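Milestone 3.1: sequence recovery, worked example.
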């Protein structure tokens, strides 16, 4: 299965799920700049953002040593979400949304491979989040033990 951007992973909550702290996201993706958001969906469809995070994928190893992506070559990236605590209630859903940018909240990504701060040319970003047996994207949530 391929999830095209903007991509959604929508997970039903079968029992109350207490999340005590920061939760990380691991994605095997072919994207230029993934940005992830964790939403809490009420049974009535109301969505509430619980956490979000961003990573500049060209700097996935070291920020000082950028490595541009090769189109068609998936890479594994981890997007850490800002610290949060929440109890996801049974009957609700956890949704993960992935996109290539979050402008104007953070600097735009021109998607050219040039310097983001000074590049004036713009290109459209496309991306895929893989979700199959050979490339299993997944969400890791730290759970509290029930008393």
């Amino acid at each position: 299965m391929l999830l095209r951007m903007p991509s959604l992973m929508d997970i039903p909550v079968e029992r109350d799920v207490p999340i005590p702290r920061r939760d990380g996201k691991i994605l095997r993706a072919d994207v230029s700049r993934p940005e992830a958001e964790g939403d809490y969906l009420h049974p009535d469809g109301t969505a509430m953002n619980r956490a979000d995070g961003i990573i500049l994928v060209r700097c996935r190893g070291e920020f000082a040593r950028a490595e541009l992506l090769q189109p068609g070559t998936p890479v594994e990236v981890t997007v850490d979400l800002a610290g949060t605590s929440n109890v996801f209630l049974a009957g609700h859903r956890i949704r993960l949304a992935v996109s290539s940018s979050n402008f104007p909240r953070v600097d735009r990504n021109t998607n050219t491979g040039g310097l983001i701060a000074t590049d004036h040319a713009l290109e459209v970003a496309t991306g895929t989040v893989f979700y199959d047996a050979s490339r299993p994207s997944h969400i890791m949530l730290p759970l509290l033990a029930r008393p």
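The mean pLDDT is 69. DSSP finds no helices and twelve strands in the chain.
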